[in-house]
Design a protein that fits this description.
The chain has 119 residues and is α/β, with parallel strands linked by helices. The protein has one domain. It has 5 helices and 4 strands. The protein has a 4-stranded parallel sheet with strand order 1-4-2-3, with helices on one face. 22% of the residues are buried.
Amino acid sequence: MIKLKRAYEPPSKEDGERILVERLWPRGLTKEKAKIDLWMKDVSPSPELRKWFSHDPAKWEEFCRRYRSELDGHTDLIKELRAKGRKGTLTFVYAAKDEEHNSALLLKEAVEGRVKGRK
């Protein structure tokens, strides 16, 4: 099971392993408060893609296409996350305010093998 949670929400026992899936550490959040077990920077969108998207919902569909393409180059990290998921609950921790347009959603789909239009 994979859950998604904003970095600014308090951690809970139900989170299981908390994995930060952002390239940058969330602003104003201490490591003690975050309770992050693993920081996987390389599975997050590239700096260029992150800057281009700039959390603009109008760019969402194109962002999805581009980020999925980037994830195709990180099959080793996807496999690592799948293996961790088989052992217990994972919570992908992300910093974006928008809960409907963020890379953690797409990463969750990829790890669960539910990417639309793909096997």
